[in-house]
Amino acid sequence: xxxxxxxxxxxxxxxxxxxxxxxxxxxxxxxxxxxxxxxxxxxxxxxxxxxxxxxxxxxxxxxxxxxxxxxxxxxxxxxxxxxxxxxxxxxxxxxxxxxxxxxxxxxxxxxxxxxxxxxxxxxxxxxxxxxxxxxxxxxxxxxxxxxxxxxxxxxxxxxxxxxxxxxxxxxxxxxxxxxxxxxxxxxxxxxxxxxxxxxxxxxxxxxxxxxxxxxxxxxxxxxxxxxxxxxxxxxxxxxxxxxxxxxxxxxxxxxxx
Length: 257
Description:
- With 257 residues, this protein is α+β, with helices and mostly antiparallel strands.
- It has six helices and twelve strands.
- Strands 3, 4, 5, 8, 9 and 10 form a six-stranded antiparallel β-sheet that branches. Strands 6-2-12-11 form a four-stranded mixed β-sheet, with no helix packed on it.
- Strand 3 and strand 4 form a beta hairpin.
- Helix 2 packs antiparallel against helix 4 (174-198).
C-alpha cells in the first residue's frame, strides 16, 4: 500500500472515530422527604450535543425523546447508547438531557437533572451529586399540580407525534411506547383526582410582576380579569386545558398498541 493511500485510510478511520460517540448508562434516584424510594418514577430524556460553525455555536438533538422507568428503589437507569454525528458542520459528542422527571405518587412533574437545572426547595431538591432528588407532594398546591399536568401533557404529545413517513412509536421504540401508555393512564388519574379535589375551588388572582412598566400594568390587569372570568374555578381551567387531550387518548392508545 502506498504512503498516500495509507495516510488517506488513517484519516478516514480518524474521521469515523470522531463521528462516533458513546454515552454510558446513567442512573438517577427519586426519594421522598423521609428518604424512602419513590416508585414508579419516570424520566423523559434525549441526547443533545454542541454544533460548531462559523457563526454562533448551536446544539443538535442526537436521539428522539424516550422514557425510562424506575425500579423498586426509585432508581431510573438511562441506558447506554452509541451515536453517529456529522463531522461537517462539526458536531460534538452528545450527552443525556433530562427533559422531565415525573413521580405520580407525588403529583410532581417538575424535575430535571441537567447541569444548570435549579433545585426547588419544597418541590424538587437535587443533592450535590446531581443524581438523586427529594421529591415533594404537590397535591395540596393546585398551581404547581396544574404545572405538572401541563408538563406531562407536553411530553405525551411529543412522544406520540410523528413526522409524515416516520415509523410509529410502537415500532421505532417499543419500550417507550409501553411506558407512554402508562403515562397516559397516570395522566387520566391526575386529571380526575385534580377535578375531584379542586373542581369548585376559586382560582387565586396572581400577583402583578414587579418588572412591568406603568404603561403595561393596565394591560396585564385586563388580561388577568379576562382569564379569571373565562375560568373562575380550578375545575373550569383544568377542563378547558386538558379535556380534549384526555378524549384523544383512546385513539392514541390504539396507535401505540
